[in-house]
Amino acid sequence: MVAVDGQEIMQGSSPREEKIFVSVRLRPLNQKEISRNDVSDWECIDDNTIIYRNNLSVSERSMYPAAYTFDRVFRCDCSTRQVYEEGAKKVALSVVSGINASVFAYGQTSSGKTFTMSGITEYSMADIYSYIEKHKEREFLLKFSAIEIYNESVRDLLSTDSTPLRFLDDPERGTIVEKLTEETLKDWSHFRELLSVCEAQRQLGETCLNEASSRSHQILRLTIESSAREFLGNDNSSTLAATVNFVDLAGSERASQSLSAGARLKEGCHIIAGRNGHIPFRDSKLTRILQSSLGGNARTSIICTMSPARSHVEQTRNTLLFASCAKEVATNAQVNVVMSDKALVKHLQRELARLESELRHPGLASVSSDSALKKEIAELSVQRDLAQSEVQDLHRLVVDHKTSTISVDACSDYPKLRVRGSWELKVPILDTQNQADNEYVDVGIIPFDSCQYSDQHSRSDSDGHMIHIPDFEENSLLFNPSSQFSIQLSHSRRNSICPEDIGEYTDENSEDFCREVRCIETEKPNSNCHGNDAMSSVEEKEGISDYIVVKEGDEEKEKSGSPTLEETRQLDSVPQDYVEPSFEKPYSLIQEKELPIPRSFKLIRSKSCESGLVNISFPIEEMEMNHSTALLRYDKEYSGRPQGCRRKFPLLKYGYRENLPGSGSHNSPEDSMDNELQAEIIQTVEKCDSSMTSASEIEESIAQQEDQPGQHGVHDIKSNVIAPTKHVKDVGLDPIEDDAEGSLEWLSHFKNLQKQIVKLWKECNVSLVHRSYFFLLFKGCDPTDSIYMEVELRRLLFLRNKSASCNQALEDGQASTAASSIQDLCRERQMLTKQLQKKLSRKDREMLFQAWGISSNMKHRSSQLAHRLWSNTEDMDHMAESAKIVAKLVGFVQPEEASKEMFGLNFTPRRSSTKLRKWKSTMMSFL
Ligand SMILES: Nc1ncnc2c1ncn2[C@@H]1O[C@H](COP(=O)(O)OP(=O)(O)OP(=O)(O)O)[C@@H](O)[C@H]1O
Predict the structure, then answer these.
(1) Beta strand 167-170 with 174-177: parallel, antiparallel or unpaired?
(2) Where is the composition biased (Basic and acidic residues) (predicted)?
(3) How far is the CA of 112 from the centre of ligand 1 (A)?
(4) Cα(437)–Cα(738) distance, rounded to whole angstroms?
(5) CB of 110 closer than 6 A to ligand 1?
(6) Is 111 annotated as a binding residue?
(7) Annotated binding residue at 112?
């Protein structure tokens, strides 16, 4: 039970999937159809069923159903308002409570997609503004953007520049478009006007694209950030952030009819290409955009529009088939909570208290059930993420605080409304001080460095070093929250790995098995740029000095004659007063006071550079809106960082604070803020450290937990997990003297860890791809590797011990027997065998065979080689060679270019359910 807007709303017991809401809208026969004596063949017999009225021939009867059932079907006399209220409102308004949403229209040309979507968009915007108006106690930040996809080119509809944009996978927001213009406007009608102005200007500049634009996919996007107090009790500094997409797809018939249609041939190919006639994810821009809507972190509503005319029966059947497929797709929407540093520090403090108490009473923390095991895995992922975030944040903290802030006048009508520009261009800095005082929040600008989007994309690694990423696609991969397998994927695609060959590694899988981990790192390309100068220069460069503050919705909601949204004139009038929607099953939907409440929160790092990185997925029902109880529950779920991580903070070790800009003798107000915040964090860290200094205490605690039947042989390894405690801590406190000695010590510790990890990989049948990537990535050059090594070791131990005790290891909440992991390994070796044949020339293969002692008279030599890879865990050279070969075959990104942070928790790729995969494939084949 949680409270929203003063009301308590029932929650599900845990995060669970939710099906896409699918409705069908039948339009009336149009003049053209009437004039050629076309007849209407379809009839909605009730709110959920549409039937084909014409008699089906015997052969047709076996091929086509006569009746189709959906969440809702709308007869041809239904108004767009009704379609909105009953088919899209709940989904669209999810955005105000921090849940991503997508509403899209699908159907053949002239079936009424634009007619429907323009209305849906209008009504949604009106309701969103009404909601904001009624909830002045909450702060809202709204930003609009619009894109068009045609022929695999993405164009910014809010820009007069027709240069195609590129995609970027953003860990927090999914697929976004590079340099996309985002506008904060005072109301929706202004956005429409802006769109039409831009469109008109583009038309003046170029005529050829206009024809294309009428057949493009159009996506309007609204991103809302809002205060999260309603959801997180008294937490003033965390925010909710979500996006709603309104997608007006181009005519669905293109996939089947466009092959001969000249100019559309290219797009048709893009859409229907694929080995099995379906599009694997990421093969098209559209599918990438829709990816999260089809099984991701978003609520989705699809409205399938259809003509009733007999002459269109074939297309209409296709549309209905698509709609039937869509019904099967499940999404997993969560509230997206962006935490500030302050909130993070508080959580760490609570975590510390909890850990201390756990250490004192280890018995209480012992894992005793399956659900506890699942929690343990989730916990580990959180711990790992936290450790990473600490390292990164401490590095950036002072620099980020130097970022200048500007104040934007809050309008009197929306006193809590914050305004900011493009995501890519400006990042808000939450002024936690002000927020605490419940005052207006400044808006900060982090300069955007356009050079970072050139061919030499740059980002900083956790040590603040620049990493050059040569290719944009690769850049996007690095930012992908999906774990290591995402990286292989894109490369695999480029290298023509057949998805069937590596079923386990397909995108949808990586997405699936990473969902729980939610490794969302926020190394934005622009995060390297700070400072006023750069900011102002960017403002000049980008011409982004204007801000429009959203005012109360007292402006008349004009109906502009926007060429892109011409049907708005036909809408029912936009309501001035918010009307409580009445939703019925299967969506027992939101009332205005019962906004959709997700089953879980997703905590992400604030876009504010000063904010902490936390990626936590936990059930909302575990949180209570009452602050005090929320903390208790939160603590329960949120169990802190691994011991290893807790002890390794580059900030302490390298004393880099002294070297950071602004941390010298100048004590500006920002500095004191920095210092205050740093001090708080350091205090937490040190407290944390001191609480864990007693290695024997920890060992004892672990020993107590592990001294159970079936858990054997862990003590030797365990001692190594604990060993670095002193080392890192000491080095941290005494950075200079201990350096040389520390390095040696670290190196031997690293080797030790590596040996044990390698052994356990074999024992646990861990994926070869994972082993290779890990092996290549963590070479012991960087002491912070210990975080990852220890987390890896701990997880492996956990897996091994659990599988030893119950012969069943739990991965991502799914049972995986030893037999299935062996099977996975076999499949992986088969994939590598195929890759050996595909990727390597005969000559290269021959050389490899020779090097690996596979003589020419042996049969199935590639397979033999694949089976020898990673077979000898004693020989470092063998493993290094194995890793290199696997990397080459699978197409890793260069390890040195890869982000360690993206290293996920999963050992072996988990296959998503065949059913879901099948549906996704079918779904995409329609688009
Ligand atoms: N439910 C409806 N009631 C009345 N008229 C409709 C309805 N749906 C569509 N129309 C009319 O049908 C025509 C085509 O509609 P619309 O442009 O929305 O189709 P579309 O599917 O977007 O086509 P395209 O894919 O070619 O852009 C328009 O003139 C529109 O006014």
Answers:
(1) antiparallel
(2) 552-570
(3) 3
(4) 45
(5) yes
(6) yes
(7) yes
- CA–CA separation, 120 vs 118, rounded Å? 6
- Provide the residue ranges of all domains of the chain, joining segments of one domain with +: 643-806
- For residue 175, list its beta bridge partners: 169
Phi, psi of 497, deg, nearest 5: -75, 130
What is the residue type of 36?
R
- Tokens encoding 605: 């790092």
Q: What's the half-sphere exposure (Cβ side, CA atoms, 13 Å) at 895?
A: 18
Q: Residue 548 Cα, ligand 1 centroid: separation in angstroms?
A: 33
User: Which residue, 432, 430, 342, 339, is CA-closest to 382?
Assistant: 339
Distance 449 CA to ligand 1 centre (A): 42
| DSSP reduced 3-state for 888 | helix
- Helix then strand then coil, % of the chain, to nearest 5: 50, 15, 35
User: Are the CB atoms for 127 and 89 separated by under 8 Å?
Assistant: yes
**568 Cβ below 6 A of ligand 1:** no
The candidate with the shortest Cα–Cα distance to 306, out of 74, 467, 104, 139, is 74
Residue numbers of the chain with a pLDDT score lower than 50: 1-15, 207-209, 211-213, 255-283, 366-368, 398, 400-674, 677-678, 680-682, 684-738, 808-816, 895-913, 915-916
Which residues does 519 contact at the CB level (< 8 Å), separation at least 6? 171, 381, 385, 481, 482, 483, 615, 901, 902, 903, 904, 905
Buried b (16+ CB within 10 A) or exposed e, 302-332: bbbbbbbbbebbebbbbbbbbbbbbbbbbbb
Tokens of 205: 């500049």
Among candidate residues 603, 611, 594, 604, the one with its CA nearest the CA of residue 634: 603
- CA neighbours within 13 Å on the CB side: how many for 237? 24
Whether pTM > 0.80 for this model: the answer is no
Indicate if ligand 1 lies below 6 Å from the C-beta of 115: yes
d(CA 199, CA 284): 24
- At 788-800, the pLDDT tens digits run 788 788 888 877 8
User: Cα of 115 to ligand 1 centre, how many Å?
Assistant: 5
Residues 457 and 450: their CA atoms lie apart, in Å, by 10
With b for 16 or more beta-carbon neighbours within 10 A and e for fewer, the 443-477 pattern comes to bbbbbbbbebbeeebbbbbbeeeebebeebbbbbb
Residues across the chain: 927
Structure token pair of residue 724: 């670095």
ipTM for the complex? 0.98
* Residue 818 backbone dihedrals phi, psi, to 5 degrees: -60, -40
Q: Is the CB of 109 under 6 A from ligand 1?
A: yes
